[in-house]
Amino acid sequence: MSRIEKDFLGSIELSDSELYGIHTKRAFANFNVSGNSVDKDLIKAMVMVKKACAIANFEVGLLDKTRKDAIVYACDQILEGKYLDQFVVDKFQGGAGTSTNMNVNEVIANIALIHLGRKPGEYEVIHPIDHVNMSQSTNDVYPTALRIATIWNVRELSEEIAELQKSLQKKEHEFEDVIKAGRTQLQDALPVTLGQEFGAYAQAISRDRWRLYKVEERLRVINIGATAVGNATNAPLKYIFKVTEILRDLTKIGLARSDYLMDATQNADVFVECSGLLKALAVNLSKIANDLRLLSSGPNTGFNEINLPPVQAGSSIMPGKVNPVIPELINTIAFQVMANDFAITLAAQAGQLELNAFLPLISKNILESLKILKNGIRIFRKQCIDGITANREKCLEYAKKTPAIAAALIDKIGYDKAAEVAKKAILEGKQVIEVVKEQNIMDENQAEKILDPFEFVKFKE
């Protein structure tokens, strides 16, 4: 069976299995770019907004109970995970999200019609715009839904960050007595412990967790009720207050209506802020991944200070080779998040006057960044961090060999003489303490005490 739907541009035939309508059909043809449809979290957030709007419109007397109940039923069906295959519009689209909004409106309307015993397309009973989109515009539905979807994903990401922080802290304590050479600019430096290095990683990740926690305050500010340009045309004041309360109850998020709806309608800086924090997280993760790749390099010609869990064979030609593929995955994710942040920046600044036409691009990139970071961090923790072991003897060997421990001699013999000792140790391939003993620079017991690598990692009173 099929049906004909019409708009002011003409008519299109749709099968009755297509629960979207003419607007979605046109958008699907116009924007068939990537083959990837709009993120389902955004769809569910938009459906939740539609449900809240239907209830609010009913409570203020704009929508009758039969239509309200049918729309709410349709929304609940989608929120349960049904009919998600009907949301077909590509992630890349023009129009500020209107195509996505219409896709949602049409699918809800047709599910509601079927529930009432009607056929898809009988819009005189329940209309996608007149009823499902009542008191709304894409320009307040889409930004509101994107904020909700972003909060959902920020919270999930925050949980994974917290678990990663715990794993790094466990390694900090596990390796607290593993003495090793520090390195600055990849050159030998003063001794540190492997635990201190992991502790520094945990501190960086802790800051990322805190920053994301704080950004939710701005994401909670929504513009539902603003309609097209922020002046609430076609949205009664009672409805505006009511819909925010209902949406707050449905989402279990402390949403707050913007006190300046036009601002929240036209400006997308909160997504730039959030994306910037995701970029900061990506930077920290990538730095940790870089360090782990260096520290585990080898096994015979690299640093070989730590062992990463072997997760897969590393070469089709070199037998026995195992590569640091999990840290490399984290680097890859970080690069993508940084690229997404740049796209979000460009899209946000490209808004004009009362609306940003590029919210779909912002949506695509920020939700992608949140998801790949969440999944990547979980893999990083479980398949890499938790299974790292230390090569204690190799670490101690490097700690004793680093010429930088000549710094302990400065207070005794001055910088210039200490530099000569370090230079001689490097040229002759000796430890600093060996040169000190050969030249009788100080008492052997005193030399062994101040040049003991473990002395460098003690905090002095």
Report what the structure shows:
It is a single chain. This protein is mostly helical. The chain has three domains: 2-134, Orthogonal Bundle (Fumarase C, Chain B, domain 1), CATH 1.10.275.10; 140-224 and 260-393, Fumarase/aspartase (Central domain) (Fumarase C, Chain A, domain 2, Up-down Bundle), CATH 1.20.200; 402-457, Fumarase/aspartase (C-terminal domain) (Ribonucleotide Reductase Protein R1, domain 1). It is 59% helix and 7% strand. The protein is built from 17 helices and eight strands. The protein has helices at 22-30, 40-59, 65-79, 98-115, 128-132, 138-174, 194-219, 237-251, 261-266, 269-295, 325-349, 359-383, 392-401, 410-413, 415-428, 432-438, 444-450; strands at residues 2-7, 10-15, 179-184, 187-193, 221-222, 256-257, 306-307, 389-390. Strands 1-2 form a two-stranded antiparallel ribbon. The protein has a two-stranded antiparallel sheet with strand order 3-4. The protein is elongated, with a radius of gyration of 30 Å. The protein starts with a strand and ends in an 11-residue tail after the last helix. The mean pLDDT is 95. Residues 154-181 form a coiled coil. InterPro entries: Aspartate_Ammonia-Lyase, Fumarase/histidase_N, Fumarase_C_C, Fumarate_lyase_CS, Fumarate_lyase_fam, Fumarate_lyase_N, L-Aspartase-like.
Labels describing this entry:
461 residues, mainly alpha, Fumarase C, Chain B, domain 1, Fumarase C, Chain A, domain 2, Ribonucleotide Reductase Protein R1, domain 1, two-stranded antiparallel sheet, 17 helices, 59% helix, Fumarate lyase, Aspartate_Ammonia-Lyase, L-Aspartase-like, Fumarase/histidase_N, aspartate ammonia-lyase activity
